[in-house]
């Protein structure tokens, strides 16, 4: 029977069994090595509230803490939420790492007179 993926959709290699982790979206228990893992860092408050807090704060050098979250999805939720995409046969065989997209920092605009 032909194999769809070289690793069988998992990254356990020589381990016999791996523990399960719950999917963040639906709660399904997924093997830890098969789950789609994403680590997100977000601000605790949205941008408009952050502006209000900065205007009314008592300490100048106080920084608002961030929210650090590890999201783990099952395969079906990862595809449904578009965290990962379905790839065709040729692209699935590619061993090259995926192209990473970096968000550029906006440069401060200078005003000329």
TrEMBL record:
InterPro entries (alphabetical): Ribosomal_eS26, Ribosomal_eS26_sf
Record has Ribosomal protein as a keyword: yes
Bias type Basic residues, positions: 1-16
Region (Disordered): 1-24
Alphabetical GO biological process terms: translation
Gene Ontology molecular function, alphabetical: mRNA binding; structural constituent of ribosome
Family matches, as Pfam families: Ribosomal_S26e
GO CC annotation terms, alphabetical: cytosolic small ribosomal subunit
Keywords, sorted A to Z: Ribonucleoprotein, Ribosomal protein
Family: Belongs to the eukaryotic ribosomal protein eS26 family.
Protein name: 40S ribosomal protein S26
Annotated organism of origin: Stentor coeruleus
């Amino acid at each position: 029977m032909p194999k769809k993926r070289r690793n069988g959709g998992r990254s356990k290699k020589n381990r016999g069994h791996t523990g399960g982790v719950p999917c963040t979206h639906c709660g399904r228990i997924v093997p830890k090595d098969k789950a789609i893992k994403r680590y997100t860092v977000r601000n605790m408050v949205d941008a408009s509230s952050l502006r209000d807090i900065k205007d009314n704060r008592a300490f100048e050098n106080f920084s608002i803490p961030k929210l650090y979250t590890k999201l783990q999805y099952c395969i079906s939720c990862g595809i449904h939420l578009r965290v990962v995409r379905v790839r065709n046969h040729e692209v699935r065989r590619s061993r090259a790492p995926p192209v990473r997209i970096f968000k550029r920092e906006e440069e401060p605009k200078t005003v000329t007179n």
